[in-house]
Specification:
It is a single chain. By secondary structure, the protein is mainly alpha-helical. It has helices at 8-41, 46-56, 58-61, 63-69, 75-92, 99-125, 133-161, 166-184, 212-239, 244-272, 274-294, 298-326, 332-357, 364-381, and strands at residues 190-191, 194-195, 393-394, 400-401.
């Protein structure tokens, strides 16, 4: 047993778990306070919330180009560098005084955050085989949720009892990002859970017709997610008048439930497959979104918010494990980056349009539009077949190359 934990994959698991927890702490605490910070300190209006979200998604939209420029860097180095950039951006949030002065720091954090989201997934998938990828993604999600839980507890206590100001909190979050960077910088080179002598090769930019269903899932899920991400907490603050400490308490409950269920969700995807899992969850999104849009009390709105938050990881984990099963090994990381870029193509436009619409209609309308995206995604999901859709291309010598078969298929 002791020897087992000395293996490269085991060391990598521990490093990535620490990084996930620290990164989860910083990013979730930022999410918990930014809505109230924008509202209480900067005085942003409803439409400006949408504009901020659109600016924040620029980093995700250009991620594929950043990945192409930095493709010679190992995933470990790229992840650590992105975490440092993210930490600097979080700390500089403390300097904002209005919408205009906020924009540069939103852009900086965007570049760091979206790079980490992509590379973290690629590092996690390198820890194991394709057949167990859902389980490892779920476990890493649980560590991230644990960090988030600690962050929300701290935010609740700090703002409930006046221990910290917004600006001091942003600086602390920057420090947590540096902790995450130090944890992951020595992550071992792995392939299929086994040590590799050199860093796995990565392509600069990948666009293959074989991955088209993955691209469609990213596009539709990105649009749906950004509606809820942009205006979910805004509804609790503006419609129901929740304070920063109350928002943190809501998120503590959500994150604790997510931490408990994350590993279970990953195992379910491994057991039942992506097509069945994602299809069911897209129908559940519609129920949660409609319920949240028309909830007339805090307990009811909180219940639907919890339902949505619990099922949201299924789409991301399922799409990632589907790609892992069909993609060539060298395509995985740039294809994940391509997926993030595609998702944020809609993520830039949707919050701006939704914010504009809020000037004329009730806040319920954007959530109903999100239901349409979920319905379209459910149609795409019915076409998934990881075995039949495995990519096979010829290398320079003419030899056919394909991704390793999942253990269950071998």
């Amino acid at each position: 047993m002791r020897e087992r934990w000395r293996s490269p994959a085991s060391r990598g698991f521990i490093m990535l778990a620490i990084m996930s927890a620290a990164f989860g702490f910083a990013s979730s605490a930022h999410t918990a306070i930014q809505t109230n910070y924008f509202n209480d300190v900067l005085g942003l209006s409803g439409p400006e919330f949408g504009y901020v979200t659109a600016v924040r998604e620029v980093g995700g939209f250009v991620l594929i180009f950043l990945t192409a420029l930095l493709y010679r860097l190992s995933l470990q180095t790229l992840t650590a560098a992105a975490l440092v950039v993210l930490g600097v951006g979080y700390a500089l949030f403390s300097l904002a005084t209005d919408f205009v002065s906020l924009v540069p720091w939103v852009l900086i954090t965007s570049f760091g955050l979206h790079t980490v989201l992509q590379t973290q997934t690629a590092l996690a998938l390198s820890l194991t085989t394709a057949a167990r990828s859902g389980s490892i993604m779920g476990r890493m999600s649980a560590f991230g949720q644990a960090g988030s839980l600690a962050a929300f507890a701290l935010i609740w206590a700090s703002f409930r009892f006046g221990w910290l100001s917004y600006r001091a909190t942003f600086i602390i979050l920057g420090g947590m990002c540096l902790v995450a960077a130090l944890a992951v910088i020595r992550f071992p080179h792995l392939s299929e859970g086994e040590a590799a002598r050199v860093a796995p090769r990565r392509e600069r930019i990948v666009w293959r017709r074989d991955y088209r269903y993955y691209y469609w899932l990213c596009l539709l899920d990105g649009a749906r997610q950004q509606v809820f991400f942009s205006f979910g907490l805004w509804v609790l603050v503006k419609r129901f008048g929740l304070r920063a400490d109350q928002i943190s308490l809501v998120l503590v409950v959500v994150i604790f439930a997510g931490m408990v269920s994350a590993s279970w969700v990953g195992r379910l995807i491994d057991k039942y497959g992506e097509r069945r899992s994602i299809s069911i969850v897209n129908l559940a999104y519609i129920v949660a979104l409609v319920g949240y849009a028309f909830a007339n009390s805090i307990p009811l709105a909180g219940a639907f918010y919890l339902i949505y938050a619990l099922i949201a990881p299924v789409s991301f984990i399922g799409a990632s494990t589907y790609l892992r099963k069909i993609a060539l090994p060298q395509d995985l990381s740039p294809s994940l980056a391509m997926g993030v870029t595609i998702a944020h193509a809609t993520a830039i436009a949707v919050p701006v349009l939704a914010g504009f619409v809020l000037n004329f209609v009730g806040y319920q309308v954007p959530f109903l539009v999100a239901c349409a995206f979920a319905l379209a995604a459910s149609v795409v999901t019915l076409r998934l077949d990881p075995v039949a859709q495995r990519c096979t291309v010829a290398d320079e010598s003419g030899k056919k190359e394909a991704p390793p078969k999942p253990e269950a298929e071998a």
